[in-house]
Write a structure and sequence with these properties.
The complex is a heterodimer of chains A (296) and B (416). Chain A contains 11 helices and 1 strand; from the N terminus they run βααααααααααα. Chain A is mainly α and 296 residues long. Chain B is α/β, with parallel strands linked by helices and 416 residues long. The chains are: A mainly alpha (296), B alpha/beta (416).
Chain lengths: 296, 416
């Protein structure tokens, strides 16, 4: 390469001005090879928290930029799906299995499901899609999959607003269990973060995971009774659903919003699984992180 | 004063085999399951000798003091970029330790994290945050950044519509306003036009004046000699002692020119279309029959080209570079004389270029050969050979300007 700079004066470094902190007082950064367990650097995450918001802001902005309908998409996608699944459900006679209006029933399951599906697909692919952020710069990398969860959350809030108007439309009062909704959101976010961490780290290491992810999302949708009432199965078959942690959250949402009977066993399975997944997922992420730049 | 950066026996290995890596999903899942258990077993991830590992860095140690500007130079693959990646925390060292004091900013690529769909304004904020700035800080410096980048009018245009020059200017501007105490810069200035490169170097120079510390990788010896206070020469993953700039550049260039006693036909070259080497011989003769002449003496180049079967007329250029990697002169079959030529398929074509006088400043010069078909560089052989130009008392003053002062020595007449 040729760099045709003509002349740059050589300057001797001037003494540092007094206003700057002397190097002795600033925090010393030590870089060395770490083995085994890498603790999460909470102080770093906290000091870079604005970056997380910028990454979410970027994703939201980019997603709806140049789209004629803009934010309407966040509303249209779930609404069209609700219409579709309601139509199918009515045709199949599933609507007799629910006490609430069937469209509301479907929406109550679709709302958390769309969030999880976005966590799995967008979260899982977040690192491979932004490899230059891994190989050209250092930043708290946990934020990259975490930002997709934030984006999914914003979409969920938008379609949640539509859901609220649907309650009014049907004149169906939400159940009093709705006070537990924040706790269920917490569970949902835990599950979403855990899946995004583990899948994104796996995708960087093993590219097969990339092809597995859409398939995983599709299978999960059907085995979690996200878009149909689980009561179409016999009690023994329904019992098996309890071991699917996604099913537990979705049932929880129906209980909180529509007053459907509580599926306690499914919920407990979901809570335990989500908590373990988040801890394990972030541990696995931190462990895999050391090699991200080398293989990205 | 204690050093701002101290690098202590740092090594970095990359696995090139599949010794430990799970290769399919079944193993991957097993690996995933076992991962938390490894810690209990005190699983040891150290590399062992003999395992398939490539050592990109080996026992690199040096220290950088506050206010120093250290140039990292070396050939491609010598480990410069790996060292910068380790220093930037992008990848971990395999062995050794680095201690740094102060806010570090690393610029290994211009515009990392820029999103093409977002506008210039939005990207300033996003990129600033990615580089580690707070929103309030970016807001405070926003005008200065835009000013430096000279993109004012296009601030609300998506950067995908920017020219590459504007893109680079904006990206560098954000990074340059990070106000780091330690700046780690890879060869990002290679992009952009000359005026902008000068501006970037000027900005880096300002940082130096404020007592910042810079670690700078470049292949441009001019940028290195203009900016750095010392250099470290990297070779095969190992580093030299920190040395004065002139000394370092001299060693680097002699390393470049010194392909050992490799025959010309085996020296690395660039070709537009892959084929057997074209340049197979270069004879250089001064008046005394060697590659050493005195300034102002004549010199002859004889270029030998084998199996030149390309159809059509071709041109040949012989370029001389000085020790600072500046091109000093060009002898060409199109300019000094119009002599297009054709090759001899299967045979050897010889061209002779006689230079009646070569009045260059005493020093070492490198000879590059470039063969074109008028459009493409059919073959380019950098550092084909070197010549030594010695002092001659041309003007009877006993003195001549030196290599840092000028390249060509021409006579003149003064009066007063």
């Amino acid at each position: 390469m040729s760099l045709s700079v003509t002349q740059v004066e050589l300057t001797q470094p001037a003494p540092a001005d007094a206003s700057r902190a002397s190097p002795e007082t600033t925090r010393e950064l030590v870089i060395r090879s770490r083995k085994g367990w890498n603790p999460i650097d909470w102080r770093e995450l906290l000091s870079h928290r604005e970056l997380l918001f910028f990454l979410i802001w970027r994703d939201v902005k980019v997603k709806y930029k140049q789209a004629i309908l803009g934010f309407a998409w966040a509303i249209l996608v779930p609404v069209i799906q609700v219409v579709l699944f309601t139509f199918i459900g009515n045709a199949a006679g599933f609507n007799s299995k629910t006490s609430a209006p069937y469209a509301l029933y479907v929406y109550a399951g679709l709302l958390p499901w769309l969030f999880l599906s976005s966590s799995i697909t967008n979260g899982g692919l977040s690192l491979v899609n932004q490899q230059s952020l891994l190989s050209k710069i250092y930043l708290p990398r946990l934020f990259i999959p975490a930002a997709t969860i934030g984006t999914a959350l914003i979409d969920m809030l938008l379609s949640g607003a539509v859901f609220a108007t649907m309650f009014a439309w049907y004149g169906f009062p939400p159940s009093s269990n709705v006070v537990y909704l924040p706790l269920l959101m917490l569970l949902l976010i835990t599950l979403g973060l855990g899946s995004a961490f583990i899948l994104s780290a796996l995708t960087i290491n093993y590219r097969d995971v990339r092809f597995l992810i859409p398939f995983l999302a599709q299978v999960l949708m059907w085995i979690s009774a996200a878009v149909y009432p689980p009561r179409i199965f016999n009690p023994q078959q329904m019992g098996w659903l309890d071991f699917n942690p996604v099913y537990g959250v979705i049932c929880g949402f129906r209980t909180a919003l529509l007053g459907e009977p509580l599926q306690l066993r499914a919920l407990v399975v979901s809570i335990i699984f989500s908590a373990v997944l988040l801890v394990w997922g972030s541990y696995y992420f931190k462990k895999a992180e050391r090699r991200f730049a080398d293989i990205a | 004063m204690s050093p701002v950066i101290s690098i202590n026996r740092v090594s970095k290995a990359y696995r090139i085999g599949v010794a430990h890596q799970p290769s399919n999903l079944r193993e991957a899942i097993m690996d995933l399951v076992r991962a938390p258990l490894r810690r209990l077993r005190k699983y040891n991830e150290n590399f062992h000798e003999g395992e398939d590992a490539f050592w990109a860095l080996r026992d690199v140690s040096f220290e950088v003091n506050r206010g120093e500007v250290v140039g990292l130079i070396g050939r491609n693959g010598a480990g410069k970029s790996t060292l910068l990646k380790v220093l930037s925390r992008i990848t971990e060292p395999t062995e050794g330790e680095i201690r740094m004091r102060g806010r570090v900013s690393s610029l290994l690529e211009v515009g990392t994290g820029f999103h093409p769909e977002l506008t210039g304004r939005e990207n300033v904020y996003l990129n600033g945050a990615i580089l580690g700035m707070r929103r309030a800080e970016i807001r405070r410096k926003f005008d200065a950044i835009v000013d430096f980048a000279e993109v004012g009018r296009f601030l609300d245009t998506p950067v995908k519509r920017y020219s590459s020059g504007m893109y680079v200017r904006l990206a560098f501007a954000v990074a340059a306003h990070l106000d780091p105490e330690i700046m780690i810069v890879d060869e990002v200035l290679a992009v952009g036009d000359a005026a902008f490169q000068k501006k970037c170097l000027g900005k880096m120079n300002d940082c130096v004046k404020q007592g910042r510390t810079i670690l700078f990788v470049s292949h441009s010896m001019e940028a290195v000699s203009g900016l750095c206070t010392s250099v470290v020469l990297m070779r095969d993953g190992r580093n030299s002692e920190k040395m004065p700039v002139d000394e370092g550049i001299k060693q680097y260039l002699s390393m470049l020119g010194d392909n050992g006693d490799v025959p010309l036909a085996q020296k690395p070259r660039r070709q537009y279309r892959k084929r057997d080497p074209i340049f197979t011989g270069l004879k250089i003769n001064g008046p005394d029959g060697g590659k050493i002449i005195r300034t102002g003496q004549s010199i002859t180049f004889e270029v030998e080209m084998t199996d030149l079967h390309e159809p059509g007329e071709m041109t040949l250029g012989i370029a001389l570079y000085n020790e600072r990697n500046q091109r000093v002169c060009l002898f060409h079959t199109m300019y000094q004389q119009h002599m297009p030529f054709r090759g001899i398929p299967g045979g050897v074509k010889r061209l002779v270029c006689e230079v009646p006088s070569l009045p260059l400043t005493p020093g070492t010069y490198y000879v590059d050969l470039v063969l074109t078909d008028g459009y493409h560089e059919l073959e380019r052989l950098d550092r084909a050979d070197k010549i030594e130009i010695l002092f001659a008392d041309l003007f009877g003053t006993g003195k001549l300007p030196n290599i840092r002062q000028c390249n060509v020595i021409l006579p003149c007449r003064w009066s007063q």
